[in-house]
Structures are given as C-alpha cells and as structure tokens.
Amino acid sequence: VLSLAANPMSNDAVVHVIAKYAKNIVDIRFRDDISGASPIACGICDTNTLESSDAAYSRYASKCVAAFGESLRFLDGYELTPSLRERLLEQHDNRRALYYAPSDERVSDLFREAAITPLFLDERAIIIHSEAEEFAHDETEKKNAEIRVVIEEDMALISMLEGMTFCDVTFLDLPSRVHSKTLVSLKIQNCSLASLEGLQSCTNLHSLDASSNRISKLDSAWFIGLNRLIYLDLSDNEITNIDRDAMLCVHDKCPNLRHLRLARNQIRTLLEVQNLLERNTDETSSKTQINNKSTCYADVLRVFILKYIDLRGNAVTNLENYRECAAYFAPSLVLLDGEEVREIWRRKGRFLFQGRLTTEMIKQKLAENMNNNDDDDDNFTLNLSEMRVRRLDEESVSGVAMASAKILNFEKNQLSDVSALGSLKHLRRLSMPKNALRFALVREPFVNGNTGDDSSVDERNEESSRCFYEQFFPQLKELDVRYNRIDSRRLVRLQLQKLQLLSFVDVSNNRLQNLDGLKNLRNLRKIRADENPLRQFNENTFLGFGALESLSMKRCGVRSFAHLNALPHVNSLRLDGNRVKDKALALKQLAGVNGLKKLSLRGCKFASSYFDEAVFALETLEFLDGIKITCEDRERIRTEMEERRAREEALKFQETTLKRMQVVVQQVGLVHILRTPSRTLISAMR
Predict the structure, then answer these.
(1) Count of alpha carbons within 13 angstroms of residue 401, beta-carbon side
(2) Maximum Cα–Cα distance for the chain, whole Å?
(3) Rounded Cα–Cα distance for residues 148 and 170 (Å)
C-alpha cells in the first residue's frame, strides 16, 4: 500500500517510475478525503465508482491501471472491478490509437517498451538506456541490436564511451562504439549544442531529445536521412526565427514526424507558427486542387501529419488567436500545449485565417510572373489575381515584393477591405476587378477633443486630418474597382475623396446611380463609369469635377445629355449605347461643352446618321467614334451641310407658300382650283 496524497506532483511520469520499481503494489493513493489530491489526480469522480469520472480523472485512472497491471486492486480507495479495469484499459488503448496507426507496429512496440503513452511525451517520460549490451546478448545479435543513447548533464552513464566531448559541443559526433544505423532513441540534454549535424547516418532514429541546448535556428540539412523520426524535442533552446523553406524540407525529410516540442524558446509571432505548420502538397495534388474552383488557394499549401505540438513558454502563446491559428494551419492536430484541440478553435481559425494572403503565396506568384516584369523597376507589377484571397493584414504587406510594387493586381479575389495596403509607399495603380469591396480604403483618424477657441480647434483638426490621410496610399494615382457591386452609398463609404492624388478611377459594371463619391478630387482627370444605371442628370450631378478631362458613360441608360456643360475642362466623352433619341437636342446639348475634342456616340438610338451633323455642330471636335476629323473632311462636311441647309430652307419656303395659297383659295371659294398642280397655282399667283 502506498499513499502519496496531497503531494505537489504534476508530472504523470511518476506513475511509470513507481510501477517500474514497485511492481506488486495493490493499493495506491494520490488523493484522499482528508489530505486532498495531488495535481496528477485532479478531476471530479464519483464516490462509489469511476465510471462517471470526468475526462481528466478518467485519463489518469486509465494510465494507473495500464502501468501497474493486474496487481493493482484499489486506486484512491476505490475498488477496481474486472469490468471497470477493462473499460479503463480500453480508454487507454483508444487514446494511443489517436497517435499511432494500427499498421505502425514498430513504433507502437517501441513506445510500449518504454512504458509510456503519448500524453507522457509531454513530460519527457521516455525510459532511455545507455548501454548497448542490454540489447546485444551475443556477437551475432549485436549488429541488429537497437541502441538507445542518453547524454545528460550527469555524464556518468556514458563516461566510458570513447571520442565523446561534453563541453561546448558544436558538432554532434557519435562515438565509434555506437552503431548509428541501429540507433533508435537519442537524448542529448544540456550539452551546449548549437547544431545537430552528424545525425545523417542515424537512419532508424525514432526519438530525438535535444532540449536545453544553444540551438537558435532549424537547418534542414540536420534531418537528412531521418525519415523514421517520430518524436523531436527542441525545448529550452534559443530558437527565434522559423524559416518556412527550412520547415518544408524538415517535413519532407521526416514524413513520420508526429510529436514536436518547442517549449520555452523565443517564438514571438503568429507568422512563425504558420511557417512551422504549413507544408506543401505534391505537385499532382496541388494542380488538382488549384483547378478546383471551390478550393481556397491557401488550402493548397496545407497537408499535415503532426498530431502533438508544444509551444508553451513562448511569447506567441500570449497573443490573441494563437490557438485558432495553430488549429487552422494544422487540421490533424490532436493536442496543443497539452490541451485537446477544440472544434471551436478550428471554426474560428477558418473565419480568421482562411483566404489570408501570405508571404509564401506572394513569392510563388512572383516566381510565376518574373518573366513578365522584364526587370523594370519603374513599373514593377505584382500580379496576385485569382488566388481567392479574402484578408489582408500587416504581415501580408510586410514583404519586400509588396513594398516595392508600383502596380498591384488583385483581380478575381474575395477582398472586402484593402486598407492594409495603405502603407505601401510606392504603389501607383491598384486594380481590384471582381472583388467584394465594402470598407473604406482610408482609416479614420482619432481627433482629440481639445478645448479652447472653436475656430482654432477646427483648423488644427483639419490640418491633422490632412496629414493623417496623406500617410495612406501616398503615391496612388489609378484605381480600378470594376465588378464590385458598388452602389452610390457604398461608393461614398469608400472615402475616395481622401486620396487627393487620384487621377483615374474605373467604377464600371457596378450599381451606381450617381458619382457623388468621386467629387472634390482635385487631381481627378479621368472617370470610367460604363454600364451603371446612371440614367438621369441634374444640375448637381457634375459639380465638384473641376479637373475632369475624360468621362466615359457607355451603356448607362442615359436619355439626355443635359448639364454636361458643367464640366469646364472635359475634352473627351464616351457616351456609346445610351437611350438618347432626339439627335438635334443631343447635339445642341453637347455643343455647350467647351473644348470637346473626342466624342463617341456609337449605339445611341438616333433615327438617322449623325456623323456629319455632329462634326458641323461641334467645331472643336477632333475625333468622332474613333475617326479622326481632318481639315478637308471638315470643309467638305461644311459645304455639304450648307447646301443641304439651303435646300431645306427652299423646301420649307415652298411649303409655307403653299399653305398660304390654300388659305386664300378657301377664302375666295375656288375649291376646284385646289385640284390643279401646285406649280400651276404658284405661277398663277405670281
């Protein structure tokens, strides 16, 4: 009988240590009603049976039953009946099945010899032997023996091994007495290691514990040949930066890696967690998933076998959404920092991180489009189209490629907020067709509620707001937001008037009924608003466009060209495919636009040809429907139009005279004269 109640034991490995040296214990207690419970026996249990115990206590009870075997009859004062023992052992086996596939018999047998379960991996409870003779009873079996070596702070266990140095070890060199090809488990703690080079020949290594050393980064060259590695412990080191390419190589070289411990290092950002967990698929599956339009581009990069990760003691664990990030980027994860992964973490992670633009996605696209840029730094274009990106954050735009891009193309994505791009100092053109833009491009400033003179406060607030807005998109001149289903209210909410350097805006194929959201932009020279339901203009429609030079409103359902003369500097109008029917009125309204040089009216519902009439009515016109008007053409058209006008005036005079004659004849009563030809009557009247 052994009672250890109320002792501060938080390491579950003590159960297996006791079971190893006290094999005949019948009754063991880690909790009682008087003294209380040890941390390892925490949880709620029924006073009569263990069947209704909670998950924590049931796990602890099943481990005790598995460790002590048939000799244990009482646990914490409760009798272990055969049926209860069978159920607890079944729970124990089910937990093991979460970590090891049934076909992985070698791995299962290895850890069963060490008398552990995956939960104890978190507490370094592996029983490691240092003498090769325990596994090799004769010379014939020595070559095939499985050797496990431990290098701890107390070097007494392996002091007889030749060729091993223990002080300031920077290169791992296994002694000649150890057969590296038969090495299964290696533990090298507190050895001041800065590198793990020298393990390439350990092709059968399953477990590697290199905790409490001086390792600052992960090098993929260390893991060449370790394709059977399952458990890797790099806790209590100095790892600060996790390179994604190196981790991809580690995943490729260690395809069976399931347990990874990086506790108490210096990992600080969620980007490091993402680099740690992401893994590329093979080329075939990547192409298949990319061709599938329902698959998110970020999901193509993720395939995992890691089931246990420990990052406790790192600064990143204190960040918001840390657990959601790990659960999203590692879908097969079972335990995170000793806690079972919850489904709500995965759902929230999908909401927060699905469709997020990553630096790796940018690198991949940059490599694909490298040939199209032609090394032209003045027009460096970054094409990020058709990637199903939904979110942008500070990490997304922190790369060198984004910072140096002059032109960004986000066509056919799912972006609703691009305010994170405001920090790009060199961006000149932003193209976002076929997205879902909803939020303002410029964030609102925080204005202090100062007291004092109201006028001075307003001036200071206006000046501070102007300086604040100039920080966002400082060089942006061209914006393309076609096919974003933007209506007039949403256009105002985008706050484009804060981007005073904008010179070109394309809002075609949206749902705009007016252009109020584009007013008061002092540098705006060109607007393209094709295929919007604008329809009608009023006296306020074109106010606030003092610098506008080119306006395109094709197929907008416009019925009148009135009020276009409110644009003082416009010289190009594209009004194709509208519903204007009165040709004379339309040309009269367009004649009021001073300085008009380019005009396109193709597809308008005029009853007859309008080319000659438009050239004759608009004296400053240089191009009509894309056709250049020369001086000879203008002279010819002027002559033809004058002759046509003379003929029309003559015909109008004849018709007027005839009407007067008919009135006179009716008054005289000579009705029969009306039957004579009109020319005869005219001659008679003369």
Answers:
(1) 21
(2) 149
(3) 21
The CA distance from 164 to 167, in Å, is 10
Residues whose CB is less than 8 angstroms from the CB of residue 445 and which lie 6 or more positions away in sequence, other chains included:
464, 465, 468, 469
Read out DSSP for 609-621?
A: --HHHHHHH-TT-
**386 half-sphere exposure, CB direction, 13 A CA radius:** 4
DSSP string, 209-255: E--SS---S--GGGGTT-TT--EEE--SS------HHHHHHHHHH-T
C-alpha 362/C-alpha 369 separation (Å) is 10
For 150-182, how does the pLDDT look when each residue is reduced to its tens digit (9 = 90+)?
433 322 223 223 333 333 334 455 544 445 666
Closest CA to 300 of 211, 365, 347: 365
pLDDT, tens digit (0-9, with 9 covering 90-100), for 221-245: 888 888 888 889 999 999 988 887 7
| pTM of the predicted model as reported, rounded to 2 decimal places | 0.55
Q: Are 562 and 542 in contact (CB under 8 A)?
A: no
* 465 phi-psi bin (left φ>0, alpha ψ -120 to 50, beta other): alpha
Confidence class for position 12, pLDDT limits 50, 70, 90: low
Q: Which amino acid is at 190?
A: N
Distance, in Å, from the CA atom of 372 to the CA atom of 476, rounded to the nearest integer, reads 22
- Full DSSP string of 323-388: HHHHHHH-TT--EETTEEPPHHHHHHHHHHHTTB--HHHHHHHHHHTHHHHTT-GGG-EEE--SS-
For the record, the structure tokens of 498 come out as 């804060």
CA 176 to chain centre: 51
Statement: residue 377 has pLDDT above 80: no
Q: What is the SS3 string spanning 497-542?
A: HHCCCCCEEECCCCECCCCHHHCCCCCCCEEECCCCCCCCCCCCCC
**Three-state SS sequence of 415-469:** CCCCHHHHHCCCCCEEECCCCCCCCCCCCCCCCCCCCCCHHHHHHHHHHHHHHHH
Sheet holding 598-600, edge to edge: 381-383, 407-409, 429-431, 478-480, 504-506, 526-528, 550-552, 572-574, 598-600, 623-624, 627-628
User: For residue 435, what are its two tokens?
Assistant: 């997205």
Query: Quick check: helix, strand or coil at residue 308?
Result: strand
- Residue indicated by tokens 């400082």: 474
